[in-house]
Amino acid sequence: LDADKFRRQGRQVVDFIADYYACIDDYPVRPDVAPGFLTGKLPETAPYTVEPDALTAALRDVRELILPGITHWQSPRHFAHFSATASNVGALGEALAAGLNINPFTWEASPAATELEVVVTDWLGKALHLPEKLLFAGGGGGTLLGTSCEAMLCTIVAARDRKLAEIGEERMGDLVVYCSDQTHFSFEKAARIAGICRGNYREIPTCRESGFALTAKALQAAVSADEAAGRVPLFLCATVGTTPTSAVDPLRELCAAVEGRDVWVHVDAAYAGAACVCPEFRHNIAGAEAVDSFSTNPHKWLLANMDCCALWVRQPTALVAALGTDGDVILKDAVVRSSQTGVVDYKDWQVALSRRFRALKLWLVLRCHGIDGLRAVVRSHVCMATAFECMVRADARFEVPVPRQFALVCFRLRATAALPGEDKLPCGAVDDVTANNELNRRLLEAVNATGRVYMSSAVVGGMYVLRCAVGNSLTEERHVREAWNVVQKQAAVVLAIKNK
Ligand code: PLP
Known about the structure:
By secondary structure, the chain is an alpha/beta fold. Helices cover about 40% and strands about 10% of the residues.
């Protein structure tokens, strides 16, 4: 790396990014492009020889060819999925880590990186009001992975091996895992990779009355039925902030339902875990003292740019027993020294050997924003989502069929929505679920086609709902108001077509 060249090129890239953010609002949030639009514009092979100032030319390609085809996740009018909340220091932390380009798989491979990860996961755990048992300070410990799916996979294999060591490997086919029908699909993927039989994956139904949260009664019934059939309950994935509606599974009741059965309880709080930085949201993880592991994605709502998933476990030895290796010939000495000194070798807490220096970015975010700064971000998003919810509720054509949770509002046109201009709802209209779902699907399509706003959808309890997730750093109240205006305008259009 040539320092002078790096300085010059670094400035070019920083300027490029700053220019992008300065006019991000001018782009349609979701690009209007057809499949293959980019492939046809790029050469079939990489260049053999390049121009003297290849970076300048490449940045021009990014501006002219690539930017028109990206979905602008950082647009203040991106309300789809869950956010990927960005920050200056989140981006610069990524740059710092990429610049140092280290690979801290063992303590010895980079002592400061390992120790920073130990410190920063305890910092974040304390900031989120996690039980002490999950922190290094309380005998547990945390690590930084890329995604929640990895956190699920690592914890299932830890639970699996702990259980099989007790009951014998020949019982693998009897192991059962539990979740709700609202659990993120990545849990099914993780269970499959961990070797859980497809027939032993229990997706327990939820309902509107319980706010689409998993109930202890339903879990208890499923577990008892499996035990009666000679199967072995292994793992429960409870979610705090489900993907479709951000429902919260009641941790205390669920842990009580499996108490005494040695079921590993994992909490997937990929999105909503961040809210626990605010004491007023801590009740959502009441009962977490009894769980075995907890994960959340600081890249979703805590200003840590992609990617960063924090996982805490109560018993790190279970993780290491499943994922640890003695090290090949090259690493053996370092691994032996680690075990003698009791330091963490993070390669044994994850699937791969190599790893990124994510701790630097997360530390930088916590160091530069402070816990109060993170609280302010969460509160402002919740406040804007509350304002959006109020606007929806004030329009009789719409309903909010599930309570707003955190900064996610799920809403839809009622089946009985009035004709534009009418303020009374037609009496006795039949709620034709399929037709209404189709109407709302068309509404979302129309809203997104404007390019001014991007929202997403979910189907819960047979209902198609639009999802407005507030969570971008650049989003202000005026963007939320504008988003609602777009929805209202497009609703008038789709209703007019429907009522023709
Ligand atoms: N769990 C929940 C509740 C999610 O909302 C998501 C993604 O949005 C995931 C898990 C998957 O996260 P990842 O992409 O980090 O695996």
